[in-house]
Amino acid sequence: MNGLDRKVEKESRSLLNELRGFDKGGFLDLGHPLLNRIADSFVKSAGIGAIQAVSREAYFTAMEDSGSDSSTDGVTEISGTRKGQPFPYLRGQTNLKSLEAMVKNTGKESFQWGLAAGVYSGLTYGLKEVRGAHDWKNSAVAGAITGVALALTSDRPSHELIAQCAITGAAVSTAANLLSGVF
Questions:
Q1: What one-character DSSP code corresponds to residue 32?
Q2: Which of 30, 45, 136, 146 could pair with 117 as two cysteines, CB 3.0-4.6 Å apart?
């Protein structure tokens, strides 16, 4: 084995070790566990949100091209847009306005996913440190505050939407916490 092969093998191993380390340490080291957890959750979830937004748009474009009806008319998402047409200017066309709308909405959805994950992760960590316990109460409070944050990022936040998102966030995170020991 010559020197170049060893160098390539060493770089390959270090890349693999870095990728394996994402599960343990995260992407960033900001000097404090709370900041690391928030930033790591935000980055990972924002990426997932971008993939979800683009895949959803590809699905709706394909369904529109095939002439199928998605039969979700009248149902709205948290962003206030119709599920049948989540991006108002996207019509399966390849014009500049369509591309700009997709990029804008993908960015917004990435931010919402990252915000939710960062806020929830930071709050659960902070509450665990302050209270000295990680239980359903921490999850309920973090879920409610995360729900409020998400509702405030919607196109038309209202008192009803904020309350609904807070209750839903608290219920889902509490259920997840209580069921985590069951499965």
A1: S
A2: 45
CA angle centred on 23, ends 18 and 24, rounded to 5°: 85
pTM over 0.70: no
List, as one string, the DSSP characters of 81-96: SBSSSSSTT-SS--SH
Q: Which two tokens stand for residue 181?
A: 């020991």
Reading the chain (183 residues) residue by residue, the pLDDT tens digits are 566 566 556 555 565 665 565 555 566 777 888 888 888 888 888 988 899 888 888 887 777 766 655 455 544 455 544 455 555 555 555 556 677 778 888 898 899 999 999 999 999 999 999 999 989 999 999 999 999 999 998 888 999 999 999 999 999 999 998 888 776
Query: Terminal CA-to-CA distance of the chain, rounded, Å?
Result: 48
